[in-house]
Amino acid sequence: MNSTAVLERQNEILRRNIETMIIKNNRDGLSRQESGFYHTMVKEWHQNQHEINQMRD
Questions:
Q1: Contact 35, 45 (CB under 8 A)
Q2: Which domain of life is it from (predicted)?
Q3: Degrees to nearest 5, angle at CA 17 with 5 and 7
Q4: What's CA 43's distance to the chain center, in Å?
């Protein structure tokens, strides 16, 4: 597996986790700890997207 494939797989996992957190937030709300995890995942997802886009150029 090359580094682009690894980042794409990681992004897919992050996207699924982010979707799960959004659903939980809409249903029950997030605790402070969960909110921190959510924001960290979104930041990491954006960073990975940026790295993937740079590799493709």
A1: no
A2: Bacteria
A3: 15
A4: 7
Q: What is the pLDDT of residues 10-35, one digit of tens each?
A: 999 999 999 999 999 999 999 999 99
16-46 burial, b at 16+ Cβ within 10 Å, e below that, comes to eebeebeeeeeeeebeeeeeeebeebeeebe
DSSP category for residue 28: T
Distances (CA, A) of 19 to 12, 45, 47: 11, 12, 17
- 26-31: long-range pairs with CB below 8 Å, 24+: none
